[in-house]
Amino acid sequence: MNMRALLLAGVATLVLATSAHAEQAAIQQTAPAADQSDTPEARSLSGDVIVVTARRKNEAAQEVPLAISVIRGDSIEATGNFNVVKLQQLAPTLQVYTTNPRNTSVNIRGLGVPFGLTSDGFEQGVGIYVDDVYNSRVAAATFDFLDVSQVEVLRGPQGTLYGKNTTAGAINITTNQPTFDFEGAAELTVGNLNYKQAKGAVSGPISDTVAARIAVASTTRRGTLYNVRTQRWINEQDNLGLRGTLLFKPSEDLSITLSGDYSKQDPEGFGTTFVRVGRTQRALNRQYDGLVAAYNAANPTRPYSVPSRDPYARLTDLDANLNAGNKIGGASLKVKWDVGAGTFHSITAWRFWDWKPENDRDFTGLSIVSRSQNPSQQDQYSQEFRYNQEGEKIDFVVGLFGFKQRIDTQGTEQQGPDASRWSLTGAQANDPSILNGLTATNTQYLKSTSGALFGQASYKLTDKLTIQPGARINYDKKSGFYQRVVTNGAGTAISCSPAPAAGTVLAAQCGVYQPQTTSPSVSKWNFSYDLNVNYKFARDVLGYATYAKSFKTVGINQNGLPLTTANVPDLSASTVKPESVNHYEIGLKTQFFNRLATFNLTAFRTDIKNFQATVNGGQFGTVRGYLANAGKVRSQGVEADFKIRTSDRFTAYANGAYTDAKYKTFVNAPCPPELSGGTSQAANATPDYSQPGVPGALSPRACDISGQQLPGVSKWAFSYGAEVNTPIELLAKEGQIYLGVDGNYRNRWNSNASPSIYTNVKGYALTNFRAGFRGEGFDVFAWVRNAFDVNYIENLQVAPGNVGLIAGQTGDPRTWGGTIKAKF
């Protein structure tokens, strides 16, 4: 048997054994189904208090004067939201979109990273922390949660409390820690699509001063997209994760925790399916349907057509290899020492990430781009020192943070035998040898170093009024290297400088790939600060107001640079200015019905100058994206969270968010596909996106999209749910039979860096049900997710070349299964 089979068998045996020998006892009241709104500070009927560490100390969530969503581990398990990508179904202001682990965007309130761009040369606006350790690459978001106790989603800038500066928010993940009492947990889930998930954890003492915890999780599932070319299901799940933790506690004042983790994914994915064709401004014979017709005319014995033009037929015909090998892990050493009136923390960490992808970047069954892969390896090191002190009048946190990172990437993209027909015109389109085998080999590295001194104080002016100023001094240095070598089909390196004569084979090849070597480097100091004022209007009513002056640090371009009129790299575009952020927020946190219900309300506005976004350069008419500053962006909105527990038998919640996020100024944006090939107009022209084919381009490569909505953001988003239970004795065991429902809704959003009429994603609502029996130490339940089998799109992509082809990834169909959980 292989390792995964042994794991599944072992966990299944553990579940059955512990369930069979569980003692009959009083009913254990568990957490509500999806407890992502803040809970009462004092004990209610559930005997339950949510404690968070959002401000680097233990506090009741309702006492924290900032917008925060709290999702506990049992809620995550019950609702099947087993990674950050799925977590957005419970947190309406969180947006997570992924076309593969490297191309993952984690945004809060529409802010975080520019949509549609993958570059190692800029920072994330949403920080992901696991047990106080910063994860610099969002690929971590695609892994299964492993032995998670709680997830906190903090909205708004967090730079004065967290080691790495974040402008949009933070996701603070806390895992279960070793215990000096023996305990264990096991979970086994099976479902349709050959879904299997097993989890197990064991914790206990090794000696009077040392305790250990070991956790493991495995997930496999058949893919949801069928590739008719390879006759295989793709976009599968294939995850394995391990975590081990040692706790040394020589005294009550000192604890030392050593942790290590390793996770890997090895699915065949992430493929796309045909969604639609949109009309562009190119000549009809240079658009998708015209190009396919020309191909078929030239190849009557092997004509091409997609297997289906209905994306929900879940068929594709991708011909390139598809792989998404992904490994991530590391180790950390945490010291917590009570010194004097405060507590000293030291967090030393090393993380690695290895990424081995293979993609089909033309999104078709034709061999246009025959190879596309950018494997990379990352190592990061971080050190944080932090001191917390709480007093009768003054509390404060002060910290020192250092971070070092290196990323190496080796990229290969190669044109196939159908590339000439697709990309060239005239007689050259009939000569496949011009582009077949044309290969761009990219070598790049990034070195990044940053350091910060940060702190926040809390001063109680009165018993009701508290002010909390914070400040941060930050230094960043980035240096990189990028080299692209281009070889023709014969393996001979080509040169594109000086510019080759128009109409030649070399000109055609240089129009697709051009050699380039750059070595960008930049460093920058930044100062940021915030001020929070909060007031206790009554025992259970807390109001607060926050202003934050923040920044996203300087960036460099790691994917090549645009060219000047002299056909050489424009070195002025090597670096990207820091974003300047002004953030305003007011909020109200309330508890009522004898603290059986909570209602929290937040209003916010964030203004960003020098927004880091994707803009366009060109190579002989081809469009390439790179990172640059794009004027101004504004995000504003209102968020509400409500939860009620009328008794031990019924709990319900409803959360909602209205987010209006738009480009205030963006005059040099990439054109959407409907304007591809358009004619030049005045610099202040605003494209009319209501009619396809209407000219609006500033040039064939740039458009003014000022006033357009940011991509990836739904204006309206909701999550809601309820659970009802009744006590019963079943199979000689006392417990509860329960029924739960959870749902979420997002209205329409756009899936292109520049909003396009062809990449509008329709709104959708998903509903999940579960029903089961639980008692002391066990929980057995059946579940169905996307119960009404709603068809929906997770992401849309514009095919390279802007020929009008739109490909996408469909969301999961209805899935169902059962879960057995045991604790001992």
Automatic annotation (TrEMBL):
Keywords tagged on the record: Cell outer membrane, Ion transport, Iron, Iron transport, Membrane, Receptor, Signal, TonB box, Transmembrane, Transmembrane beta strand, Transport
Main location: membrane
InterPro entries assigned: Beta-barrel_TonB, Beta-barrel_TonB_sf, Plug_dom, TonB-dep_rcpt-like
Domain TonB-dependent receptor-like beta-barrel: 280-786
SUPFAM superfamilies (UniProt xref): Porins
Membrane topology, record value: Multi-pass membrane protein
Location(s) in or outside the cell: Cell outer membrane
Record's signal peptide: 1-22
GO cellular component terms listed in the entry, alphabetical order: cell outer membrane
All residue ranges annotated as the TonB-dependent receptor plug domain in the record: 61-170
Top-rank lineage group of the source organism: Bacteria
Entry similarity comment: Belongs to the TonB-dependent receptor family.
Descriptive protein name: TonB-dependent receptor
Source organism of this protein record: Sphingomonas montanisoli
